[in-house]
Amino acid sequence: MSMDVNSRVTLKRIGKQLGISVTTVSRILNGHARRYRISKETEKSVVKLAAELKFVPSRLARGLRLNKTTTIGLVIPDISNPFFASIANGVTVEAHRNNYGVILCDSQDNVDMEIESLEVLFSRGIEGLLLCPVGQSCEHLKKFERSRFPIVLADRYFPQITIPYVASDNFAGARDATQYLIENGHRQIMCLQGLRNTSPNKDRVRGYEAALAAHSIPVNRDIMVGNSFNEQCGYSETRQLLENKQNFTAILAFSNLLMLGALRALSEAKLRIPDNLSMISFDDQPYMAHLSPPMTTIAQESSEIGQKAVRLLLERIQSPDKSTPEGVLLPTRLIVRESVKHLN
Amino acid sequence: MSMDVNSRVTLKRIGKQLGISVTTVSRILNGHARRYRISKETEKSVVKLAAELKFVPSRLARGLRLNKTTTIGLVIPDISNPFFASIANGVTVEAHRNNYGVILCDSQDNVDMEIESLEVLFSRGIEGLLLCPVGQSCEHLKKFERSRFPIVLADRYFPQITIPYVASDNFAGARDATQYLIENGHRQIMCLQGLRNTSPNKDRVRGYEAALAAHSIPVNRDIMVGNSFNEQCGYSETRQLLENKQNFTAILAFSNLLMLGALRALSEAKLRIPDNLSMISFDDQPYMAHLSPPMTTIAQESSEIGQKAVRLLLERIQSPDKSTPEGVLLPTRLIVRESVKHLN
DNA sequence: TTGAAAGCGCTAACAA
DNA sequence: TTGTTAGCGCTTTCAA
After folding, report:
1. Where are the alpha helices (DSSP H) in A134-230?
2. Is residue A10 within 8 angstroms of chain B, CB to CB?
């Protein structure tokens, strides 16, 4: 174990101890003994000593030499958001399965920190980059379009830029949810949005509008509000609409945090779900079934997004010239519970 | 930017382009121009070119040379658990603030994976280790006791081993919660435990028993159940007690997941909180206020645990010989909502 | 069948 | 004021 500086086990040390060259030791420990027809005894003695000394090769040195660090970088806007935590879980598990390490950066929902993170990661010699972009600007990503550097986006992508991505089928998710509300008699559906101009938000708005259109329900911009995925936005926007006495019978919340904020506003206004108002929220979480009432949700396969993204990334690392599917959309699933009332 | 292998900007390249040695370039870019009295012009030209070329030093090479990678390793049992995600958030943010990078490993609640993670992290040349141990065995950590290698545990620690740690004051948390239940007239309190033999669990049991003792309430082992922090355990143990018609008026759940499982069992049994049964849960989360009913909780400062642990770790990295406080306990806070009924 | 030497990119000791 | 040299630990020619 390399805990102690002066006791670090290196090829050199093993070689010296056995009276042979580092080269031979390296070859044996990399499984090239046969190829170089190294004598069985030498091989055995090296393997034995390496095991005794618990030799672990320095990936630093190896990375420097081979330009191969078996490390990928992961940039996440906020690891304490359960949706992203779940993506990170998929990423670390799948990376580890492929013997890759993950360096994690938290961009704190801030493009500048995102840019800085990229620099830090590159200086650490990552072989590929997995990025959940903050999402509004992509100027700093343009250079990757023509570059051979392996990169995959997750959750959010940019239509104006061709970089592979893995995301949920947000269009279908929002459309299905809206459709479900319509089938239950709702026509005035508050659309509680997250950060506008991000791909998930735009796709969800399209899905929402498509469902309305399919039932010839006119779009009412007055009840399409919000511009951030957080709880505060859900609270203030809902409260605002309530105070304005806007006319709506259901809320479609674009994130679990927006939903919680809306819930807070409703409870302050003494309104009950689903009696006074119906609701559907994006993101399924274990607690959703225990809310008051159990919440109907649009579940995303968040861990799978992370796994799939790693797989794409490793493919690109292994063969940078093979073309990668530009975008992968994972299905969403409407989980019906009790937060939607059937209007007669 | 080091995206392109053949275009990687190095000290050598800058030196060659300017007709000076790498040494000089290195000194200037490390801010040692003054110390070596390097001429203003040389300095200016180097700084200018480095900026133009967007030079970013290879931390790999630097790490190899200096034995200093400005990287710490973080091992977490399950990043998709919001409690650990929150710790990870504190860790990444605080590490970044100190210009350190974080390599993340998910041990998946498995000691063998934890051990493997350590090896991987060491091979990557981490300067220090931040470990949320799975918690039951610590054989593999013994070697750190006498070692100078910087390590800090978070959340769980081992009394039989002297390694610095940061955790919640779980004893006080459980004691306060139990006390609150007792004050509300409860004497038969189901103690829904997580993994036995882990420090958080043991400390919470002690707190629970201390509160009972303080009110001369005998301990009833029949209603002290559970052996895992997950949802399934909460469900099956609660269900079991219910079926056995055990006599209890309140539940103290040792994690948010246990609480959710208990909730599921109660709802199947058509029991309502707090009318039929009272409940308090460890871990506060944003959704807790919106459960049915709003849940009284014991909040932990999870993000602060991560931050504090990083600070301790960096201290140890900077001065390995200065003695570190062996254990730091962060306060918990009882957040009273509506899940506890006052028995007359 | 084995080794010597070079070099990945960087910094530090020693020289000049 | 600047440069030469060595070396971190590893792999890979090239040579024997």
Report:
1. 142-146, 170-183, 199-214
2. no
